[in-house]
Amino acid sequence: MAKLFIKQAKQYAETRPDYPKQLFDFIASKTHTHDLAWDVGTGSGQAAQSLAGIYKNVIATDTSLKQLEFAPKLPNIRYEQTPPVLSMAELEQLAPQGSLDLVTIAQALHWVDTRSFYEQVKWVLKKPHGIIAAWCYTNARVNDSVDSVFDRFYTVDSYPYWEPARRLVEKEYRSIDFPFEAVDGADDTGPFEFVTEKMMDLEDWFAYIRSWSAYQTAKEKGVELLNSHVVGEFEVAWNQSGDGHKAVKFPMFLRIGKVGKF
Question: pLDDT at position 6, please?
Answer without folding.
Answer: 46
